[in-house]
Amino acid sequence: MILNVFKILVPDGVIIWDVDRYIINNGIKLSYYGFLYTVSFLLSIYILKKLHRTNFETEDNLIFIIIMAISSIIGGRLGFVFFYHLEEFKHNLEDVVKIWQGGLSSHGSALGIVAGVFWFSRFKKFRYLYFLDKAFLLTLLAGFFIRLGNFFNSEKIGKKTNGDWGVIFRNSAYANEIRHPIQLYESMICLILFIFFLRLNNRVRNGYLTVFIVFSLFTLRYFNMFFFGENIIIEQNLNFTFALFSLTFFVVLKK
């Protein structure tokens, strides 16, 4: 049963966002975040099949996407622990595996995907850089849906704003404040980059697509985080590091 799908009021141009985080909440619970993540998973399988110029088995495509999803979650959780909350988890190691309580790092997910694709390529004896390019292209698509999920969940909220594009997130700690919907900003960044690099897929290969995606994404995220405005030092350092590393990788590829 769908409950409270759209409770949106727009007085004076400001959106009041009061949406139930669950698209289904009748014994079985299905959040918008989980639903959108599943949509990105299924779309990735379809798009990957279309991207391949050679005839890979459908089973290989499915295994590849599953490995991406698992490595993204494991890397994201470990990144959340080591980058942001190491001191807290030192004394509660059992909480590290409780991913259902929230807490994933996009930077950790990126590192997890790099490792997962490497394992997949070695196991299946496929070209690593070829699949790394495909992985990061599909990551942009997943990022679009995941940030939409964050918006529906009223989480990862930006700083105060007086702009007409501001949002009042009723189901958050800022229930009476107009805030930047930075989830939507980043979601649109991911979608635009996905469409752009999808068109370049057959012209930019062998790791170069990965370089351009990582550099573009984390550079734009660096500037988007200024709309977050609170406790962004670690996040900004990671964005800068990833963008810089992509340039270093570019030099390695050129040599």
Counting helices, strands and paired strands, the structural category is mainly alpha
Helical residues, percent:
55-70%
Mean pLDDT: 87
- The order of strands across the largest sheet is 1-2-5
Based on CA inertia axes, which overall geometry fits?
A: globular
Which segments are poorly predicted (pLDDT under 50) over 5 or more consecutive residues? 1-7
**Helix and strand pattern:** EEEEHHHHHEHHH
Beta-strand share of residues:
5-15%
Topology:
Elements: E1 8-9, E2 15-17, E3 22-26, E4 28-31, H1 32-51, H2 58-84, H3 86-90, H4 106-124, H5 128-152, E5 167-169, H6 182-200, H7 208-224, H8 233-254
Parallel strand pairs: 2-5
Antiparallel strand pairs: 1-2, 3-4
Helix pairs in contact: 1-2, 1-5, 2-4, 4-5, 5-6, 5-7, 6-7, 7-8
Question: What features would you describe in this structure?
Answer:
This protein is mainly alpha-helical and 255 residues long. It has one domain (8-254). The chain is 60% helix and 7% strand. It is built from 8 helices and 5 strands. The protein has helices at 32-51, 58-84, 86-90, 106-124, 128-152, 182-200, 208-224, 233-254, and strands spanning 8-9, 15-17, 22-26, 28-31, 167-169. It has a 3-stranded mixed β-sheet, with no helix packed on it. A two-stranded antiparallel ribbon has the order 3-4. Strand 3 and strand 4 (28-31) form a beta hairpin. Helix 4 (106-124) runs antiparallel to helix 5. The longest helix has 27 residues, at 58-84. The radius of gyration is 19 Å and the shape is globular. Its EC number is 2.5.1.145. It holds the Pfam family LGT.
